[in-house]
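Hi there. Long-time user, first ticket. I'm pasting a complex I've been working with (about 313 residues overall). I'd like to know whether the download I got is complete or cut off, because the file seemed smaller than I expected. Thanks.
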Amino acid sequence: MDMNDKDRFEEIVSSALEKQTEFELSPDFADRVVSMIQQKAVQKETQRDRWWLISGIASMIGALVYVFTKIELKSLIPNVEIAPISPGVGVFTFLSGYSGLVIFGIAFVIALNFLDKRILRRHQ
Amino acid sequence: MNEMVDDRVLVSRVLGGDMQAFHALIKTHERLVSHMVGRLIKHDEDREELCQDVFMKVHEKLGEFAFQSKLSTWIATIAYRLAINHLRKKRVEITDLPETESAMAAFVSDERTDELAEQDIDDYVLKLIDALPVHYKMVLTLYHMEQKNYTEIGEITGMPEGTVKNYLFRARQLLKDKAKKYLGNEEWI
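Hi, the file is complete. Here it is re-exported in full:
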């Protein structure tokens, strides 16, 4: 194959390869990929938040169990003599006369969290 | 050299969280990826999805890119691997060309010659290329269409340079032999 033949052959193959253009990516392909990556990042962040929440709850339960054992709450352990205890909640006794206020407080905090998650974070 | 400098600037911007830069990166390399994927994968839906996967992977792994090659070569490597994995999942046979003379002759003396007699050379050559095994198609596409050299094709496909040359030589020889039969004369090659 001399140089001219080789050039001609390469031209024919290149021309044939170039011809297969029926598959073209849509014009908004780059936008879609970028938006998918951003969505994925948000999902990852949500998962991280969830992980922190779960680990927080688990730590809290752990701490609770530790405290109960420290104050000798034996009722959870079978065949062990139960020591009478009375957890001190005296600091909250004043709330007993304001049950409406307590319910409002809880509802208000839940509503704030709901608004934060549904509206504020979405806009950010 | 300039291309490498541009790549460095672009990559550092993307790693800094600049999504506009990543948008520009996609725009620069989407043609390369679509040609590679389009050559190997036949279903349009799979093609588009695979191209998306390629760029998602590029974004995920960009921090590991050490500029030991051109950015386009590194992206082509990802596209090639994902396309091959996709074909394996779909149980598409990734065979080598037959080594024996009789099997090679069978490829060359394909029966479709008559039914394609009225089509132009490009269509015919394209059909021949599509009939080639996956690795040969890819080597031809990268060499002829993307103007990649042997070293770059070796990096992309993970083949030694000698194998790339061999694949290219054999694929071109087969195409030439088959095209001669189709045309009935040898004037064009």
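A couple of notes from our side: Chain B has nine helices and no strands. Residues 180 and 188 of chain B are 8 Å apart (CA to CA).
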